[in-house]
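# nightly structure sweep
# worker-07 picked up a monomer target from the shared queue
# config: single-sequence mode, recycle default, output format = structure tokens
# input follows
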Amino acid sequence: MNIELGTAIGTAPTSLAAFDAALRVLGVGEANLIRLSSVIPPNSAIVATDRVRKPINWGDRLYCVYAEQRATRPGQTAAAGIGWALSDDGSGAGLFVEHEAETESEVIDLIHASLEDMTSNRPGGFSRPAYRTVATRCEDRPVCALVLAAYQSTPWFTGGAR
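# output follows
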């Protein structure tokens, strides 16, 4: 399974609309997000993308891990990030962590701290942490920094009566 991981920034008149704008930048604005805990299944590959390419129809369920931080006051900053570590057994299994803060450096520190603890308390070895982050600054309208890892999309109905 390819897990597509992308970053986006949204700007709009409200913080919720800024979150929606960031989702639309990533191409997932019409999906119902199903937020997962942070376990990467075996046989997965993490693929960086500017826009999620999984087929998503209006209202589909999108299974994902995401981090989002909003800023609403001029001068305020927002940063978000997802980090991951993969099992060193080559299975593709691993762990994601998602963090939000005011700055990218804070997010990166949180990612490293979480993955260090989470991998040290599991059997086997793990790769060095990798991560993607995004940050933005509120100028005159609310903003949202978003990092999203899309596992798969599923329609609500797969046939038969609706």
